[in-house]
Amino acid sequence: MSDPTPAAELSLTGTGTGTGTGTVTGRGLLGDAWLELRRSPMFWISAILIALVLLLVLVPGLVADAEKTSSLTGGCQLSDSLQAPSAEHWFGTDQQGCDVFALTVFGARPSVTVGVIGVVTTTLIGVVIGLTAGYFGRWVDAVLSRIVDVFYGLPLILGGIVLLTAVRLPGIWGVVLVLTLLGWVPAARLVRSTTIEGKNQDYTLAARALGASDGRIMFRHILPNAIGPSIVLAVISLGAFIAVEATFSFLGLGIQPPVFSWGTMISDAQSVFFAAPWTLLFPAAFLSMTVLAFILLGDAVRDALDPKARRA
Amino acid sequence: MTATPLLAVHDLAVDFHTRDGVVRAVDGVSFQVNPGETVAILGESGSGKSVTAQAVMGILDSPPARISRGQIFLEGRALSGLPEKQLRAVRGVEIGMIFQDALSALNPVLSVGEQIAEMYRGHLNMGREQARNAAIEVMQRVQIPGARQRYSDYPHQFSGGMRQRIMIAMMIALQPKLLIADEPTTALDVTVQAQILALLAQIQTETNMGLLLITHDLGVVAEMAQRMLVMYAGEVVEQGSARAVLDQPAHPYTAALLRAVPSMTERVDRLPSIPGRPPNPLEPIPGCSFHPRCEVAQRCCSQHPGPDLDLVKSDRQARCWFAQEVLSGGES
Known about the structure:
The complex is a heterodimer of chains A (312) and B (332). Chain A is mostly helical. Helices cover 65% and strands 0% of the residues of chain A. The two termini of chain A are 18 Å apart. Chain B folds into 2 domains: 36-61 and 82-231, P-loop containing nucleotide triphosphate hydrolases (Rossmann fold), CATH 3.40.50.300; 247-331, no CATH class. Chain B contains 12 helices and 12 strands. In chain B, the strands form 2 sheets. In chain B, strands 6-7-8-3-9-10-12-11 form an 8-stranded mixed sheet, with helices on both faces. In chain B, strands 2-1-4-5 form a 4-stranded antiparallel sheet.
C-alpha cells in the first residue's frame, strides 16, 4: 500500500508521547500541533525572537529612553548629527542627532502593529470570501471572483494614495485600513483554490454521504486543510505589510512626524546612507529579524498542522 | 417480496450535462434490496454502477449530473425530490456508504476517532466525551486492535485494511438500515479483502441491514451476494439470483465476463477476453449497445435496441433477443 511507515501500524501510543500512555486524550488538530511544536527548535528560536520584539512593542521604555527620540524634549542635539556607533550611542545617531538605538526600539510598535493587524484582518476577510466562493461555486463564485478580480487589478500603492487622500486618516490606522481593504485578495484567491481542491476530495463526498451539513463540511473538513498554506501566506505578507507602511509614510500618507516607525526610519536614512550607513542598517536589521522570526514561526506551525509531516 | 422492500429503485435514469452534449450514464435501472439481503451490482468502469449508488445516496455532483427519470424509495418513502435538509437526516443515519479508497475518503487532518465521533456529534448532538466513547466502541466492533489508543491517530498511520475498517466503523456508527459499498475491497490485497468482506457479512447478520455491493469483481459477488445485477453502458442487462446468474448466464455479456475468469483447475495459456472497447457514452450505439462486441449478435441487434428486461426464467431477467439460446448454450 501507499503507507510510508509500516512501523506506524505497530506503535499504539501514536503521537501522544508527551502525555500519559494508554489514555485517550482526544486533543484534536490544534492539541496535536502544540505537542509537535513543543519539540521543534525552530519554534522556540522564533518564539524567543518574537517575544523580544513584543517586549519592544509593549514596553519600549524598559529598553531605551524615550527622551532620546525627540528634539522637542531636548533628547536630540543637532550637534550630535550622524555620529557613528559609540558607547554613548550604541547604534549611532541620525541626521537630527537622535539616538538610533532609542529610535529603533520605539519604532517597533507602529511597524509591528500595522503588520500584525493587517495580516489578521486580510487573512480573515480572505478566508471568509475564499471559502464562500470556493465552496458554493456557481453564481456565488462568479460574483465573488469578479469582485476579487477588480481588487486584484487595483494597485495597492495607487489605491492607497487615493484612499488616504480621500479619508484623511493619518497614522497607522489609515495604513491598516488601506491594507485591510486592498490586501485581502491573495488570501482569498489562495483559500478559494484550496477550497475547490478540498471540495473535490473523496473525504468531502464521504462527509456528504454521511449527512454532514454545509457548515460542518466547510469548517471541519475543508478549512483545516487550508490552514497550512494560509499561514505561510500570512507570514510572508507580514513583512510586505511592514514595508507598505514604510512606503506610505515615505509618501507622507502614513505615519507623520513626530511619530516614527522602522519604515519611516528606513526611508529617512536613504539620503544619508553613504555618510551614515548605521541609520539604515539597524532599523532594517530589526525589521528583517522580525519578519524572519514570523516566517520561522509560520513554517513551524505549518509543519505541526500537517499530520503527515509529523514524526509519529 | 410481499413486504415493502428496504430500498426500491424504479426506472432510474441519470444524465450528465457536459459541454459535448448530454450523456446518459444510467438508463432505466430498477432493483430492490430487502433487509438482510446483499444485492451486487456488477459492471466494468463506466457502466454506471457508481453513478447508480451516488444517485441512491443523493450525492450526485449536480450539475453536471441530473436524475432525469425514476424514483427511489426507502422503506416505501420517496427519497427523490426530498429537500436537502431531510435528505441529510437520511444519509449516514439510514443509509451508509463505503468508498473504494479509504485513504482519500478520510480527512487527512482529522484523527480517525474524531471523524467517527463526528457522526455522533453531527447527527445525535452527543457531547464530546460521549461521542468519543461511542466512537471507541464502534472501532472495537470493526476489530481495530487497541482502539482506545488509536483513537487519536491519523488516517495515514493506518494500513489499507485498517483504514477500510475505520471507514466501515464510520458508516455503521449510526446503524443504518442500508449500507452501500462502492468497491469496498478493490484497493486491498486478497487476504485483507477476505477479512473486510467477512467483517461486512458479520455486521450484516448482526444488524440485519441491507447491503448494496458495487463491484467489478466476480469473486466478491459469488462470495457475498444473494442477488445480482449486471450493468453495461448504463443499462441493467441481466439480473437474478447471484448463484444462478454465475452458473448459467442468460446475457452474452455476462457469459463473456465469466469466461474471462481464470479457472482454478484448467490450465490455459491465454485467457479469453471480450473484443472491442466499452462504448463511448457520447456516441450512442444504434441498436443493442453490446452488439459490436457480442458473439451471438445478428443483424437485427444493430437495428433494434435490446428488449426490455425479459423474464427468461423464474426470477431471472435479461436484456437480449437471444437470452434463451445463451442460457441453454451455457447448459450444454
